[in-house]
Amino acid sequence: MKRTLFAAAALASLAAHAQTTLTVAAFPAVDKIVKSAIPGFKKLHPTIDIKVVGREYADHHNAMVTSLATGTGLPDVMAVELGFLGRFAEGKTLTDLSKPPFNGLPHTTKFVPYTIPLSINSAGELSAIPTDIGPGTLFYRDDLLKKAGVTEKDLTASWESYVEAGKKIKAATGAYLLAGASDIQRIVIRTGLKSGEGVFFDKNNKALVDSPRFVRSFELAKQIRDAKLDANVGAWSNEWSEGFKRGTIATQMMGAWLGGHLQNWLAPNTRGLWRAADLPGGAYGSWGGTFYAIPKKSQNKEAAWEFIKYMTLNKDVQLAAFKAEDAFPALLEAQNDPFYEQGVEFFGGQKTRLLWRNAVPKIPAVEVAKHDSVAEEVIATELDKVLEQGKDIKTALADAKALIERRARR
């Protein structure tokens, strides 16, 4: 009997100290951030091993779509970019982090306020926790502006002045104002929104894509194309990066994180030539952002929750990610540090981090919807028809609305 009890106790002890392997699926550069954080996490949780599955951005999200739909090949923790969050959160396949044993709601006050409504689905479930955000930024080549006699204010005062400044830059330097006319369209549809409003859908899931906001965005994009102010190249293409390296693209609107990409690999030879500004026309918005979620079928939910807390609630971890990969912290505590006061050499000594920090409180909490990614794809297709084939703008938007609502009903 004593031997049996001893054996049982030994097995229980072994089980208590057994290693747990936590699988974390992520995309660049989130996978690098996770790998860098593993040693610190292991010191606190020596019985939890971390396996990182890194894929390119599109491949990662496509894999997560398939895994969530089939319930196979799921990680324990998945990184989700903002553009996919609504689809995943409304799919009822993510763990509700507001309920025991997670009880995540008290933690939500520690993050940038606009991120939390994005994390809560229509059923009131806390589907994910934010880790980084992308304050919308206008990056511009200061040397090209000076050659053209154009000021930052000329670029940012209004969308009309932005276009006019582009004409002066093109005439004086030969450089295009921006890479693609679609860039301005994507920003303008997010301009003027109030907290609680959606980009593509209202609260009743009615498509908004024929509204004046969308009409204006298409009109501005067409003005850009007609005036030959865009290079007509897609983001992340070889032509796009070459435009930055050679100084043939004068501005780029994206999230703050693009600054790190420009410096580290897109155009490191242009150090000191770039500056950053708020978006034109008083627009404020978030360009992307990353959240961590736990699939409902994860086998290691409690360990996954410990990992998420470490990555999102630890000021040092958040700051390390910002310093290494320009992942602007979603954690408010991590936005108070002398690091923000430092000038950035790549931007000619400009204190760009203060610019971004000051923009964050002005970003509205825009509602995300399950079919946002579908709507974005349809709108992009119709914009191409307007720009490339001369399709009438109102006809294009009416066709887009009909197709989006048809797909949303499926």
Describe this structure in words.
With 410 residues, the chain is an alpha+beta fold. The chain contains 17 helices and 8 strands. The chain is globular. Mean pLDDT is 93; it is low at 6-15.
Instruction: Count every helix, treating DSSP H or I runs of 4 or more residues as helices.
Output: 17
Task: Report the biggest beta sheet as strand number plus sense, adding barrel if it closes.
Answer: 8 strands, mixed
Give the total of domains: 2
By oligomeric state, this entry counts as single chain
Name the average pLDDT: 93
CATH class of the largest domain: Alpha Beta
Proportion of strand residues: 5-15%
Shape: globular
Radius of gyration, in angstroms, nearest whole number: 23 Å
The helix-strand sequence is HEHEHEHHEHHHHHHEHEEHHEHHH
The CATH superfamily label of the largest domain reads Periplasmic binding protein-like II
What is the CA–CA distance across the termini?
63 Å
- How much helix, percentage-wise, in residues? 40-55%
Number of DSSP strand runs: 8
Q: Outline the low-pLDDT stretches.
A: 6-15
Supply database-style keywords:
410 residues, 47% helix, 8-stranded mixed beta sheet, D-Maltodextrin-Binding Protein, domain 2, 8 strands, alpha+beta
